[in-house]
């Protein structure tokens, strides 16, 4: 059987196709060379637009108006200047060409060998928790690859994980607190101890984001904060969890720090505060800071159960009605506060019925600050007298309507001595100093989303103002100005904030009684 010759088009088609591909490749290379400047500028414009959107998203909402006004002013000036638009276009093209240039010597994407080993170690540690024998296509398996489980990661300069996005199977019980706590404890141990981590669980997307938090600043001293009447600064927190910043003076410089603002007064949802911590954790510092801030707009009554004289600097100052350390004086001051609350309620009711404005003395806030009332409770019980905390029921129950605010500070060991009225009406909570997760949960109502630090500085803790989530907190340094062991600049800052003294020092010293 003879073989017929192939058609000419099929016998010579391979050479034509090869020659066509070579011509197309040459044309593409020539076009790339010709259009290289345009490609570079386009890549640079895209990079500049991405950077601009990121900067706009990172800008706090209270500063976006001024930023928009600044940009609009620059655009208007450029439009009015002769040859301004042409020069602006040239400048933008030059910036885009510089931003879109090919950077020589750039490292290829992906982790280094030590980083890959660390990620593989984390992956192997999570296998027993994120895998089952019934899974036909397990995301986690011994000897498996970590790249699908960890789609996003970042390392610090020391080679430890700084941010990690973890995907886990849908059957993992992420709705149970015990299961989540096991994973968080494991990651805290494997990713590196001695740091504070935040865990953000996305139960809908089956993802966990682990972030290493930067330490909160501990060098912020007491100063006049830019707040409205009725707003008090408890301390400072992370910038990602509040939508506000305060301008603060730090030596000769000025910086913006995100605050934890507690709103008090008639329209406050949580008008009373409970502060809990061990001795030396900063509870007295926080009460002293609140007293100095409250004296700008109101009157203050201080009851100190410890009797250590931590509030002697406020004795005899304008707006300070009393600083009591003894049982007799404390009972008298709290009884007056209860009667004053009732008087304010009656006066407010009469003013509303008569369609008249509330009197000025009723609108002026009254603050009751109690530091360690359990000591006075013990003294009253031994002496057969009434518990001073029983006199707080009226100010706690009707304090918001009467513009009366109660702040109680107590130690962990004496929380059982607090009355039910104090526990029920102080839903704004602050925990300072080292504390276990069980203690934090029992006081704040929910566990904090971060791991505690091994070395807790004074004034460091957590705050939860009612229903919002728990926030990290660092109280501003507000030491006793008469304590010579405190840094001199911190003591001088407190002295500058104290109101004028209205009573001579020798008379005020006699008014401060010792514990009974």
From TrEMBL:
Region (Disordered): 440-460
Transmembrane segments: 67-99
Residues annotated as domain AAA+ ATPase: 269-436
Pro residues bias spans: 446-457
Protein's UniProt keywords contain Transmembrane: yes
Highest taxon of the lineage: Bacteria
Keywords from the named record: Membrane, Transmembrane, Transmembrane helix
Record's protein name: Membrane protein
Source organism (scientific name): Streptomyces graminofaciens
